[in-house]
Amino acid sequence: MSSNGYTPSAETLIEIYRRAALLKANDERVRKVITSGKIAMVYYSYRGQEVIPSAFAACLRDDDALCTIYRGIHDMLAKGFPLKPLWAELAGRTTGSCKGKGGPMHLTFPEKGIMVTTGIVGSSAPIANGLAWAARLDGSDRVAVATFGDGASNIGAVHEAMNLASVWKLPVIFVCQNNLYAEHTAYKKLTGGETIASRAAGYGMAGVRVDGNDVDAMYAASAEAVARARSGEGPTLIEAMTFRFHGHNFGDPGEYIPKEELERAIVADPVPRLRQRLLDDGLMREDQVAAMEAEIEDAITEAVEYAIASPWPVPDDLRFDVFAEELAR
Amino acid sequence: MSATARPTVTILAALQKALADACEADEKVIVLGEDLADPEGGGIVGVTRGLSSRFGDERIRSTPIAEQAIIGAAIGASLGGYKPVAEIMLMNFTTVAMDMIVNHAAKLRFMSGGQTHVPLVIRTMTGLGFGSGGQHCDYLESWFAHVAGIKVVAASTPEDAYGLMRSAIDDPDPVLFIENLPTYFVPAAHALPDSAHRVPLGKAAVQREGSDITIVAYARMANEARAAAAQLADAGVSAEVIDLRTIAPWDRETVLASVRKTGRLLVVHEAVRQHGIGAEIAAVVSEELFGELKMPVRRLGGVYAPVPYSKPLENAFAPNAQRIFETVIQSVN
User: How far is the C-alpha of A242 from the C-alpha of A281, rounded, in Å?
Assistant: First the structure.
């Protein structure tokens, strides 16, 4: 039971696990596909952080907006980004959600509220404010979520955004996924103050630090923040503690992470932990979980094959989508 | 009204009406920026005066002094279906919001493969003559013109200010709308434009016809070019004056047609000459019309120095009607 009274139902827990399993499987497949040479891409692994978006997305609707970052495919998949247009975009094909023009760092899927993916640290936050403002102008109870990492907590845009969200009392939730490394540098070396969450107080906003790998804590914090935003009570900063199992980007061996620290984190891997929880609580049987995971693997395989079989864009495509009107040849 | 009556309508009044008419016509038009709601004075020059009282303080909002937050909120609201007009008080302050403008507003349509777009107008002001020095009156239009995905607009007359602003707000893509401080207050039209008046983006205006030389300019320099052309006529030189109005993407057809006729081109802007808008225009005209040119393309622009404070230095910084006149006389002879 969480301290704030928000607890996930059995059905919600199963759904959170389904998402977490999808996220983990998709990350493992991306790294495998890159290694195989079938698709070349820039990739920022989120392995180890899966429970955070799986839990917060369980509190969101399709029409709630998400602004995420280059390490954000877990956020998007949790929010419902379909696998085929996702993989086709990773592969740079015309069937990609962005017709191959955006790529892994700019994935977009408005139907599921996935409005912006930015490659610029911290830039998700100011834009989420505007989506929240638009929701309120519409008279809707939609909310907007900005996700970013601990590194972004030190960039000006995030601070400007938190202050504006507070003074305008916007229905926005800032989810800082603190994986303890900003690119290659340890969080403690770069960040003043004990916690990122405590910075919220400086802006007159609710702020909470939770164990993002603990499904109950993450769900409770998300549900409370979303309820606060929907009821017009303003923004929340959630600092979700987690760990990144891999280097900053694919190809970075992450040698700056002490071995013992990494091993401890991997032993505490939140995805198998949640799986075990479902089994222990009797919410699912082993064969049911295994069937769910097999289904996920099959769907990913189908998406990868679809992506690789899809056509490449042609140079003439560059004349389109710069502006609404096409550019002259 | 008699033809000889003095004009009474300023660019400031035209912009005030354009914003009010746009808010009236479409409730999706929203306005944000520093000090621009009425309790804060309705903007430092008053362009937005009256809007918050008339349309409410949820739609018309004063913001913190936080340019990234301003443009970010405007981009987000665009993605949420609104048509924001965001004010960045002075053009130098766009530098603080470059990530939002260049990496996001300009690129989201392309990077999303057309799934999203940013129908945002960024109003910003600059201008010499007030001793504001190096950080309050720069001309940075060529930076933005170099970025695919954002349009750059500047007006030299009240009619164009109105028509371009309405078109910029109607446009489905981001537009940087540059306002020129000294031109705000000059009475230059006889009546406020009708609410149906529009000036299409991407179309230059031939403001004065001529046969000996084409002068291409925009914003305050278009006014200086017209004044120079009047002097030149007295000296027996027939100058055609083109106001670009949309700096990017610019109207190649109108400029090329004019230079094809005159065989001579002078481009004038206040922005620093090196790597300026004039360089692009000169290059295209040289590429397209090399064999038809009667002289090399000439350019007048700001001196390659930060904008200075002291009056004699400030006066020396940018071109004016006299320098345009002298450059043309020297060129055609």
Answer: 24
* Catalytic residue list contains B136: yes
Question: Which CATH number is B71's domain given?
Answer: 3.40.50.970
Give every residue of chain B whose pLDDT is below 50, as ranges: 1
- Residue A118 at interface with chain B, using a CB cutoff of 8 Å: yes
A115–B113 CB contact, under 8 Å: no
Residue at B141 is within a domain: yes
Nearest neighbour of B76 by CB, restricted to A133, A163, A320: A133
Pure H helices in B214-303: 220-234, 252-262, 277-289
In chain B, residues with a C-beta closer than 8 Å to the C-beta of A323 are 109, 149, 151, 172-173
Residue of B87, B136, B179, B314 marked active site: B136
Judge contact between B117 and A102, C-beta under 8 A.
no
Q: Are residues B50 and B112 in the same domain?
A: yes
Residue range A10-312, CATH number: 3.40.50.970
| Separation CA B132–CA B254 (nearest Å) | 35
Distance CA B277, CA B27 (A): 36
A202 interfacial to chain B (CB closer than 8 Å)? no
B67 is catalytic: yes
Domain holding B128, by residue range, is: 11-183
In which residue ranges of chain A is pLDDT below 70?
1-2
Find the CATH number of the domain harbouring B229.
3.40.50.920
Residue in this structure with the two tokens 């790597």, named with its chain if needed: B275
ipTM for the predicted complex comes to 0.97
> What residues does B205 pair with on adjacent strands?
B243
Q: Which residues, listed in sequence order, are joined to residue A109 by a DSSP beta bridge?
A: A114
pTM: 0.97
Chain B residues in contact with A129 by the CB 8 A cut-off are 69, 72-73, 76
pLDDT (0 to 100) of residue B3: 58
